[in-house]
Amino acid sequence: MSIRWGIVGPGRIAAKLVSDFAHVPDATVLAVASRSADRASAFADKYGIERSYGSYREILADADVDVLYVATPHTHHLAIGLAAAEAGKALLVEKSFTATIEGAEALVDAVRRHRVFAMEAMWTRFQPAVVAARKLLDEGAIGTVRSVQADLGVTRTFDPTDRVFAHELGGGALLDLGVYVVSFAQMVLGNPTSVSALGSLEPSGVDADATLLLGFDEGRTATLMCSLHSPMPGHARIFGSTGWIDILPRFHHPNSFVLHRQGHDSEQFDLPALGDGFSHELIEVTEAIKAGRTESSVMPLDDTLTVQRALEDALGQLGVRFVEEPADI
């Protein structure tokens, strides 16, 4: 049984992801859709995709497409996702899942009501190094986990025409980069009980950078940073009662981590990803659909909602609020 994929939004991320289908058994990319027929056609020609569509409505109407990978701007995820759920299409939605918690809750309600598979494309959770580090945590390799530190920053020149800086498209550091550090902390520590945020804004009104302190039960904490204007290493560190684990840069798609335990020499584990690293989440979705599952146990929808809620709390403290925009379906 081959699962047939459609790409919605043939941009930079989709271009990186599509090549990794070579490493995914029982999966083919059948179609691509854009609001520009020329753009969709060019993407299809470049990557050998059979069908291209100049509207999202057309790919939703294609009965041969089983699952959609949605890589449009954040504020368009909700409208496309709702229409896909109504059409019975499974979904892999690029992070962040939506632009608002209200939108995320609406989309999760829709996919659960229609009983279609959906997952946020948080590739970090499926990287072999992260999977192995989580196993060590579960085995108590560093005792009781107490705190997490993580950072992720890039240097971008402000450009009001760039999606990353556009308020109407859900731009800013938190939804693009902060989603990684918050999701990592939530993966390790569970659901935060408090969110404190400081940061600065771009001229367009989106967040330029942010530092977050998340509180968890039993006094556990996460200190997280993200920025569009600082070249941070992309390092994550998990502290326990008997040691710590360093997820080496860049932690959101790492090849290695180091285990430090009291009374032992440090141990480095090298576990490179398959292909460019997108293959692991694609395999997860493909296998889940084949098995008739509607959620991933590694990246469940409840985790997505928790992360989205924390991001919205932080954005609100910085004075940023987004509105989900209707997409051209």
TrEMBL record:
Q: Give a GO molecular function annotation for the protein.
A: nucleotide binding
Give UniProt keywords alphabetically.
Oxidoreductase
Q: What InterPro entries does this protein's entry cite?
A: Gfo/Idh/MocA-like_OxRdtase_N, Gfo/Idh/MocA_domain, GFO_IDH_MocA-like_dom, NAD(P)-bd_dom_sf
Domain called GFO/IDH/MocA-like oxidoreductase: residue spans: 131-245
UniProt keyword Oxidoreductase present? yes
Gfo/Idh/MocA-like oxidoreductase N-terminal domain: residues covered: 3-119
Key word Methyltransferase present:
no
- Name a Pfam family for this protein: GFO_IDH_MocA
Family per UniProt? Belongs to the Gfo/Idh/MocA family.
- Protein's name in the database: Oxidoreductase
Per the UniProt record, the source organism is Mycobacterium dioxanotrophicus
